[in-house]
Specification:
single chain; mainly alpha; globular
């Protein structure tokens, strides 16, 4: 569980003055085989599918907070 690290980073960023989207939880909801599809085979960087997944998470968060128009 990475919640301690995320909480520490949040506090270092001002304890709430900067909005943060924790992608860790979104990745954890995926099945392990699906998570593997989001990374390059030989390193821990996101591939095209991973970037698309993250972009979708960001757009959904912006819509949920009404920060962008919902078509």
């Amino acid at each position: 569980n990475d919640s301690y690290g995320m909480e520490r980073q949040w506090l270092e960023l001002g304890g709430g003055n900067i909005p943060i989207l924790y992608l860790y939880k979104a990745f954890e909801k995926l099945y392990p085989d699906d998570r593997k599809k989001l990374y390059f085979k030989y390193d821990g960087h996101w591939n095209t599918a991973g970037h698309q997944f993250v972009a979708t998470q960001i757009i959904n968060e912006l819509k949920n907070k009404r920060l962008i128009p919902i078509p």
